[in-house]
Design brief:
Layout (H helix, E strand, L loop, with lengths): L1 H20 L6 H19 L9 H6 L5
């Protein structure tokens, strides 16, 4: 469900940015806010989910081949 909302947010921000880019009377503050919101969503997409990567402690407990 979170992935769906995340993807929809990115699509909506991209759509609103495209509309604003074509408007000569655009509100610059709103346009910059949309760019920042999109950048935040893209950054969230690029970050790995916490808990999916093994920690150093888990690796030290794993049995090592001899």
């Amino acid at each position: 469900m979170q992935t769906f909302v995340h993807n929809e947010n990115m699509a909506r921000y991209r759509r609103l940015i495209a509309i604003a880019e074509g408007d000569p009377m655009r509100d610059e503050a709103r346009y910059k806010m949309l760019l920042r919101l999109l950048a935040d969503e893209v950054a969230t997409d690029a970050q790995p989910m916490i808990g999916n990567l093994p920690s150093d402690a888990d690796e030290s407990r794993a049995e090592k081949p001899r």
